[in-house]
Amino acid sequence: MAANSLLYQFKTANTAIKLIVINAAIFLFVRLVAFFIGVKPIAITEWFVLPDDVSEIILQPWAFITYAFLHYDIFHLLFNMLLLYWFGAIILNLFSGKRFLTVYLLGAIFGGLLYVVSYNLFPVFENSRSYLLGASAAVMAIMVFIATYSPNTQLRIFFFTVKLWHIALFMLLFDLVRMPVSGNAGGLIAHLGGAIFGYVYAQQMAKGNDIGKWFEHGMDWFTNLFKPRKKSPFKKVHRTVHKTKTTSKSTVDKNEHQQKVDAILDKIGKSGYDSLTKGEKDFLFKAGKD
């Protein structure tokens, strides 16, 4: 029963919360497995972190995405997830969960690309070997995207109220200042790659150009591969065709319940599932279980 409740809460949560749960679950899983078999966590994740060597990347191209779901330690995870939660709440008030996920994943990919290019192009990294992990590039893309799109929106952080562009600018300058001395130049370069993508995406969107649409179509195609064909996701919820007159209170209640279901289904037909409020989604989910 508890497992069903947790699964329901996960299914009905917004995209930012789902990403936070997934990141935290992967972090715990990796540490538990490493502990029980007596190895370091990197031994579990080496095929999922992003290496700097192109010859290795060819063998694990999925690492451009998977590295963004792995973290070095609990503080690395906590800091990234707090930023994802704060800025995700603002984005999801303006955009769909699919758009949010697109910014997150493409931010991670572009951050990873800049990291790899830098390590193979700039002489300063010639004798260095490294690998990349963490959601920081993806989170930076999220942060800069919304700070560019809605710069004067205010966010309450602890006891202070600041504008989004102030936060984004501070984070960027902080990364640039410590890049030469931090010992984590590769990670900070990835942050910059995510930030550049977030800025360009928001600027193009303001001009009416959705440069992430192709990626959304790709995600739709991929998820459809795992969906059962010719089956409705609301197979247990049926539209009323014939109505009978009755004075029974239970029948009246059923008719009112069905009318609400029909109204929600009509809304989905006109505007899509994402147009539903959380209350409507919860009601439809429960109706499908009856």
What does it look like?
With 290 residues, this protein is mainly alpha-helical. It has two domains: 13-223, Rhomboid-like (Rhomboid-like fold), CATH 1.20.1540; 232-289, no CATH class. Helices cover 65% and strands 4% of the residues. It has 13 helices and four strands. The protein has helices at 2-12, 15-37, 41-45, 54-57, 63-66, 74-91, 97-121, 136-149, 164-178, 185-206, 213-224, 249-271, 278-289, and strands at residues 50-51, 131-132, 154-157, 160-163. The strands form two sheets. Strands 1-2 form a two-stranded antiparallel ribbon. Strands 3-4 form a two-stranded antiparallel ribbon. A hairpin with a 2-residue loop joins β3 (154-157) and β4 (160-163). α6 (74-91) runs parallel beside α8 (136-149) and α7 packs across α10. The chain is globular, with a radius of gyration of 23 Å. Residues 60-202 form the Peptidase S54 rhomboid domain. One of its GO terms (cellular component) is membrane. It is a multi-pass membrane protein. Residues 252-284 form the DUF6576 domain. Its main location: membrane.
